Amino acid sequence: MTSLRKLGSSDLEVFPLSLGGNVFGWTADEAQSFAVLDAYTAGGGNFVDTADGYSAWISGHTGGESETIIGKWFATRGNRSDVVLATKVSTHPEYKGLSPANIKAAADASLRRLGTDYIDLYYT
């Protein structure tokens, strides 16, 4: 088993390979996304990355699809505290820019979609 590593100067301990969730809700439906997340965590992975705008670039999508699927996965698996969750701000079409008010609104929307009260790593 691969050992976890400290993320920078933080107290976060992460698997050395992060799982990017940009295809969740786009080319991977909910069942496929859950299967990927399950396999990753079964293999020792604990570091999942997404963004508020995934997959707004697809016709008929509004953004937040990946976060929504990850949130449903947390709810069904009951494993939020086992995963280091990273998401990004300012990629969602409704939340462009980095003003304090926009960051707060975008973070609140991400928290709702993810079904959690905290994000471990929040960045641009």
Tell me about this structure.
With 124 residues, the protein is of the alpha/beta class. It has 3 helices and 6 strands. It has a 4-stranded parallel sheet, with no helix packed on it. The protein is globular, with a radius of gyration of 14 Å.
| Biggest sheet strand line-up | 3-4-5-6
- Gyration radius, rounded: 14 Å
From the spread of the alpha carbons, the general shape counts as globular
Give the end-to-end Cα distance, rounded to a whole number of Å. Answer: 31 Å
Low-confidence stretches: none
Can you count the beta strands?
Answer: 6
Helical residue percent band: 25-40%
**Mind describing the biggest β-sheet?**
4 strands, parallel
User: Could you give the order of the helices and strands?
Assistant: EEEHEHEHE
Average pLDDT metric: 95
Which helices and strands occur, and which strands form pairs?
Blueprint: E1 5-6, E2 13-14, E3 19-20, H1 30-42, E4 47-49, H2 65-77, E5 84-88, H3 100-114, E6 121-123
Parallel strand pairs: 3-4, 4-5, 5-6
Antiparallel strand pairs: 1-2
Offer a few descriptive terms.
about 120 residues, alpha/beta, four-stranded parallel β-sheet, two-stranded antiparallel ribbon, 6 strands, about 35% helix
